[in-house]
Every structure is written in structure tokens, then in C-alpha cells.
Amino acid sequence: MKKHSKLDYVFAIIRVETSGDYSWENRITVTKIIKDEPIAQREAERLNKLNAEKGCLYFWQLTRMEPDSGAPLPEHEKKDRQHTSDEHAC
């Protein structure tokens, strides 16, 4: 992705379930967002080592950070959000 000077960029840490019977929408998860590329690279490496035997793979991906509209989240979206931990039972 080519960076545009007027946009903010971040690095998504992404987990892919490589084993198990998961549908595609449950196989791929953005676990966190990091602002610094070297930190994102190290975090993906760390998570791959930590979860090596759990049937998942972590990598980082450059993406845009959209400006916050300032509007609060609707209640149904707040309830749908899930907290993910570093140690995931893949």
C-alpha cells in the first residue's frame, strides 16, 4: 500500500486460524492496532512464538486509520465487541 501524506497509517496485527473447522469470517481476526512498523513486526513475531503450537499464524498489515467521527457507538455494537488476549486458544 502506498502511503498518502494526508492520511494516518497504522499496522494491524492479524491472526489467522490455520487449523480447526472455522468459517472464513471466524478464521481471520484483527487482534490489535499498532502505530509503529518495527513494533508491529516484533509483536507479530512474539505472538507467533507464544502461540506456535496452537494452530494459528500472526502477521502485520499496513492500513489506514480513519478519523473518528466523534459519535458514540450504538449499544448493539458495544455488546458485539470482543476482547482478545495475547494467548489465544487457536
Biggest sheet descriptor: 3 strands, antiparallel
Spatial separation of the terminal alpha carbons? 29 Å
Strand order, main sheet: write it out: 2-1-3
Instruction: Describe the global form.
Output: globular
Q: What percent strand?
A: 25-35%
Decide which structural class fits the backbone: alpha+beta
| Mean pLDDT score | 83
**pLDDT < 50 stretches:** none
What is the radius of gyration computed over CA atoms, rounded to a whole number of angstroms? 15 Å
Number of helical segments with 4 or more residues: 3
Give the SSE string.
EHEHEH
Strand segment tally:
3
Walk me through what this model shows.
The protein is α+β, with helices and mostly antiparallel strands and 90 residues long. The protein has a domain at 8-67. Helices cover 27% and strands 30% of the residues. It has helices at residues 24-27, 37-50, 75-80, and strands spanning 8-17, 28-34, 56-65. A 3-stranded antiparallel beta sheet has the order 2-1-3. It is globular and about 40 Å long. The two termini are 29 Å apart. The model has no long low-confidence stretch (mean pLDDT 83).
